[in-house]
Inverse folding.
């Protein structure tokens, strides 16, 4: 889209490609099309394309663009994918997913964030997202199994319901760590009989608060 933030947005994409080595062209395209400045508080608009997380309502954060890009890339989505997103927050990550997958089921536990994100999906005419206010550490059994699950909040362990709700071949990308302040970015892939786990390094998310997360 053409707007006053087009140049900073293009700079952000160049940084993702050249510095962070994000290679998935579809992910880069989606991020060049979604107006991140409209997902942050008005007072922070001018910082929307910087290389860091920013505060949103209820002491939560909109994730750093690099983390959004990396997690999305790791999900390996296509236009048929059915995705579960936990911790929708501002709705920015959800908007990116909505451009790359078929159907998105998103969960957020803070009611005001749910309301604000719903408004954005309407404003941007996003129709393939169903957002609920609930404890996402339980997954969303009614719509399972999923091709891909993204958790945008740090959990002490991998929530068992999320493993159960993955299709065979499905990918779960989430930050896991016994310390509330720092985690490892993990991808779990469900195989015919088991799960394989890959580690993508250190990261820092707000805590996943719920039955299978932090108390
Ligand atoms: N992807 C979001 C990140 C928001 S931060 C964005 O870029 O804006 C993580 C979010 O997870 C917060 O909004 C927090 O309220 C939410 N959260 C924490 N625990 C949760 C749970 N058990 N279920 C659903 N959402 C949860």
């Amino acid at each position: 889209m053409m707007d006053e933030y087009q140049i900073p947005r293009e700079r952000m994409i160049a940084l993702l490609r050249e510095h962070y080595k994000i290679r998935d062209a579809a992910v880069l395209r989606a991020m060049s099309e979604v107006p991140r400045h409209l997902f942050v508080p008005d007072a922070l608009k001018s910082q929307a394309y910087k290389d860091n997380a920013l505060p949103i309502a209820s002491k939560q954060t909109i994730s750093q663009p690099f983390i959004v890009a990396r997690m999305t890339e790791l999900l390996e989505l296509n236009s048929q994918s059915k995705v579960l997103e936990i911790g929708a927050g501002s709705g920015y990550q959800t908007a990116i997913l909505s451009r790359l997958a078929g159907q998105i089921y998103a969960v957020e536990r803070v009611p005001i964030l749910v309301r604000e994100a719903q408004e954005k999906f309407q404003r941007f005419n996003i129709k393939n997202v169903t957002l609920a206010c609930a404890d996402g550490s339980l997954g969303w059994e009614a719509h399972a199994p999923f091709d891909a699950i993204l958790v945008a909040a740090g959990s002490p362990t991998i929530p068992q319901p999320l493993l159960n709700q993955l299709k065979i071949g499905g990918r779960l990308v989430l930050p896991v760590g016994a310390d509330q302040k720092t985690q490892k970015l993990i991808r779990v892939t469900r195989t015919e009989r088991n799960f394989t786990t890959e580690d993508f390094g250190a990261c820092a998310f707000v805590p996943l608060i719920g039955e299978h997360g932090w108390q």
The beta strands are 54-55, 61-62, 82-86, 103-108, 129-133, 146-151, 166-179, 182-190, 195-203. The helical segments are 6-18, 25-33, 65-75, 92-100, 111-123, 160-164. The domain at 6-203 is CATH 3.40.50.150 (Rossmann fold). The mean pLDDT is 97.
